[in-house]
Write a structure and sequence with these properties.
By secondary structure, this protein is mainly α. It has one domain: Pheromone/general odorant binding protein domain (Recoverin, domain 1). Helices cover 68% and strands 0% of the residues. It holds the Pfam family PBP_GOBP.
């Protein structure tokens, strides 16, 4: 529950920074992943706040593994991180591609349930 509260707080803070609407942001969380610049900036903002990427946009794989291990069996964490935590040319693209990959991988394999 605490993670949800934190995510909502990050969303509100990043919403102020990016100007994204709730429908676009939450559409992304529900699987309708927009590819527009505003969504990418919003996801990068949230990624930085969560410590998943640093200010330079570098992926913090240890943080990702720590967070994933709360919800996913440890034997799947490394493979999922290797598959989804892939640097792109721009930090915003990295953040957006990670969200897309994690969402698709988790949904496809029913890792969480």
């Amino acid at each position: 529950m605490e993670d949800i509260k934190t995510a909502i707080q990050y969303h509100q803070e990043c919403k102020q920074e990016t100007g994204i609407t709730d429908s676009v942001a939450f559409g992304g969380l529900m699987g309708t992943l927009p590819v527009n610049k505003q969504f990418k900036q919003h996801v990068f903002c949230m990624s930085r706040k969560a410590g998943v990427q640093n200010e330079a946009g570098e992926i913090q794989r240890d943080v990702i593994k720590e967070q994933l291990s709360k919800y996913i069996d440890n034997d799947k964490v490394d493979a999922l991180t290797e598959q989804c935590a892939v640097d792109q040319e721009f930090p915003e693209d990295t953040a957006a591609e990670m969200v897309k990959c994690y969402y698709q991988s988790i949904r496809k394999s029913n890792i969480l349930w």
